[in-house]
Amino acid sequence: MKKEQIPNILTIGRILFIPIFIFILTIGNSIESHIVAAIIFAAASITDYLDGYLARKWNVVSNFGKFADPMADKLLVMSAFIMLIELGMAPAWIVAVIICRELAVTGLRLLLVETGGTVLAAAMPGKIKTFSQMFAIIFLLLHWTLLGQVLLYVALFFTIYSGYDYFKGSAYIFKGTFGSK
Questions:
Q1: pTM listed for this prediction
Q2: Transmembrane stretches, by residue range (predicted)?
Q3: 75 and 107 co-located in one domain
Q4: pLDDT in the model for residue 171
Q5: Domain that holds residue 136
């Protein structure tokens, strides 16, 4: 295996963790299975940081990585939040807001690339959003309920704020769409 392939292999690994994570939560609704799921989710989350770090360090950023890395993050986090609803650990309305924002920003990214070749890079509010979402999921699964709930609301705030920030920064693409000003 070449070192150039390692970031993409980590991204694929993160995607492969998802069905295992879901399976663990589906077959057992016990504290033990939640802890195992939290460990699996944490390991998958670490690959998010590691693949990006290695790709930048080794200067091996690829088109596959640009597409698959954010997709893997969204699939992992959205799957976890949906499972948390099923387990009664997260309110459906918060998860709905998070998922809607993720889909809206993904659509914006596609629109920007299609209309001008602009790649919408992750800004700091988006990184905080991802970090707080991942830690909220881990702490909720570990039954550290108070910390998990606080982080869930922090994640909700940064989900909304970062979505607003991305759309505000890309407002030029919608000029003339709703009348002239």
A1: 0.90
A2: 75-99, 105-123, 135-161
A3: no
A4: 85
A5: 89-171
SS (H, E, C) the chain: CCHHHHHHHHHHHHHHHHHHHHHHHHHCCCHHHHHHHHHHHHHHHHHHHHHHHHHHHCCCCCHHHHHHHHHHHHHHHHHHHHHHHHCCCCCHHHHHHHHHHHHHHHHHHHHHHHHHCCCCCCCHHHHHHHHHHHHHHHHHHCCCHHHHHHHHHHHHHHHHHHHHHHHHHCHHHHCECCECC
Q: Are residues 105 and 166 in the same domain?
A: yes
Q: Give the end of a domain, one of 87, 106, 140.
A: 87
pLDDT in tens, 86-138: 999 999 999 999 999 999 998 998 888 888 766 666 778 988 999 999 999 99
